[in-house]
Write a structure and sequence with these properties.
Layout: H1 8-47, H2 53-89, H3 92-98, H4 103-141, E1 154-161, E2 164-172, E3 179-188, E4 194-206, E5 209-219, E6 224-233, H5 239-243, H6 254-266, H7 272-294, H8 308-335, H9 340-362
C-alpha cells in the first residue's frame, strides 16, 4: 500500500478534490435536469383532481433517484477531468511525476475513491432507485391518480383465459400467494364480441382458478348489473401468467430480478434480455472506476503547451464514447443479438483496455 500511496497527505488531498468536484457537478446536473423534467410533468400531475403541491414533491422524490443514478458516472468523468486539469495547470502533476511517481500512482487515489463510489452506487440503485422506479411507474400508469392496492408491485397486467381477457390493476406476492387488486374480466363470445364485464376489487388463488370478491357482472346485451358476491374466474390461468407477465428489470433489486429470472426459466419463458439487465446492475456502477482512467489524458502533458484543452476534450470524448457503447451493447442484448454477459461487460472491458493503452502510450 505504501508503494501505491507514497504520500498519504497527497492521496487524501487528491481524493477530497476529486470527490468534492464530482458531487458538486452531480448536484448541479440533477438540479437543472430535475427542474426541466418537473416543468414538463407538473401539468400532468396537477391535471388530476385532488393533486397539489404534495404530489409534485412526491414526484420529485421519486424522479430524483433515477437522475442521480443515471448521471453519477457522467459526474465522475467530469469531476476527474476538472480535478486533473486544475492540478496540471498548477504544475502539481509535474511535481508528483518529478518525485518519482508513475502515472498509475498519480491516478491511484482517484481510482480508489471511484471504487467507493461504485459500491455506493450499487447499494443506492438496489435499495432506493429500484423502489422509486417501481412506484413511479405504477403511479404514472394511473395518470398520477390514486395508487392501486400494494403500490410498487406489478401493475396493469393482462392475461387471456380461453376467449376471455382478465385485467388486474395490481398484483402482489408470488406463486400461490399472489393477490390481485382491481380485477376486470372481459367475457367474449367465440367471435370475440364482448358479452359481459365482471369486476371485483380483489382476488386470490383458488384451486385452478381465481376467486374474486365482491364481484358484480354487467350484461352488455341487457344493460343490467348483477351482484355475484365471491366467484371463481380464470380457470387454468397460473400465477406466473400474472406475476411474470410484465417484469421490469429496472424496477427490481438485484436479488428480486434474479428470482424473477429463475421463475421465468421454470415457466419456460425467454430471459435473455433480463439477464443482460441483471449483469448490467453490476457492470453499470463499475463504470465509475473507468472514468479516472479515461479522463487521465487530461492530467499529463505540459499545460503551457496549449494542448491542455485538447487533452480535456479527448478525455471527455473517451468517456462519452464508453456510455454510447454501453447503451448500444445493452440494446443489442435486449434484441438478442449479443449474449447477456457480453452485452453487459464487453464495453467495460474494451474501454478498460483502451484507457490503459492510452495511458501507457502517452506516459508510461
Amino acid at each position: 500500500m505504501s508503494a501505491l500511496f507514497p504520500s498519504r497527505t497527497v492521496a487524501i488531498y487528491m481524493a477530497r478534490l476529486f470527490l468534492t468536484r464530482t458531487f458538486g457537478i452531480l448536484f448541479g446536473l440533477v438540479l437543472v435536469l430535475q427542474t426541466l423534467d418537473l416543468l414538463s410533468e407538473s401539468g400532468r400531475i396537477l391535471a388530476t383532481a385532488g393533486n397539489g403541491d404534495a404530489e409534485v414533491w412526491r414526484y420529485v422524490s421519486l424522479r430524483a433517484p433515477q437522475l442521480i443514478s443515471t448521471f453519477l458516472p457522467f459526474s465522475v468523468l467530469l469531476g476527474t477531468i476538472l480535478t486533473l486539469i486544475t492540478m496540471n495547470a498548477n504544475s502539481e502533476v509535474v511535481a508528483l511525476k518529478a518525485s518519482g511517481l508513475s502515472a498509475h500512482q498519480v491516478l491511484a487515489p482517484l481510482v480508489i475513491a471511484s471504487v467507493g463510489i461504485a459500491g455506493m452506487t450499487f447499494a443506492f440503485n438496489d435499495r432506493i432507485v429500484s423502489r422509486a422506479t417501481a412506484e413511479l411507474s405504477a403511479w404514472q400508469k394511473v395518470n398520477y391518480g390514486a395508487m392501486p392496492v400494494d403500490r410498487g408491485n406489478r401493475s396493469n397486467v393482462w392475461v387471456r383465459a380461453e376467449n376471455n381477457l382478465i385485467q388486474a390493476d395490481a398484483i402482489a406476492g408470488r406463486g400461490a400467494g399472489a393477490r390481485l387488486g382491481g380485477v376486470t374480466v372481459y367475457e367474449r363470445d367465440a367471435e370475440g364480441g364482448l358479452t359481459g364485464l365482471v369486476t371485483a376489487p380483489r382476488g386470490v388463488r383458488d384451486g385452478d382458478g381465481w376467486r374474486i370478491w365482491p364481484a358484480k357482472r354487467f350484461d352488455v346485451a341487457a344493460g343490467t348489473v348483477t351482484p355475484l358476491g365471491a366467484t371463481v374466474v380464470g380457470r387454468g390461468v397460473t400465477p406466473d401468467q400474472f406475476t411474470l407477465a410484465n417484469v421490469d428489470g429496472d424496477a427490481l433489486s438485484f436479488k428480486g430480478l434474479r428470482e424473477a429470472i429463475g421463475d421465468l426459466q421454470e415457466a419456460g419463458r425467454p430471459t435473455k434480455a433480463l439477464e443482460g439487465v441483471l449483469w448490467h446492475k453490476l457492470s453499470g456502477p463499475l463504470s465509475s472506476v473507468l472514468m479516472p482512467l479515461l479522463g487521465a489524458v487530461a492530467a499529463f502533458g505540459i499545460a503551457r503547451s496549449g494542448a491542455l484543452f485538447v487533452r480535456a476534450v479527448i478525455g471527455m470524448a473517451l468517456g462519452f464514447a464508453y456510455f454510447v457503447a454501453d447503451n448500444f451493447a445493452l440494446a443489442m442484448g435486449n434484441l438478442g443479438a449479443y449474449p447477456p454477459f457480453l452485452a453487459a461487460w464487453a464495453p467495460f472491458l474494451l474501454f478498460l483496455l483502451i484507457g490503459e493503452a492510452v495511458l501507457l502510450r502517452t506516459e508510461e
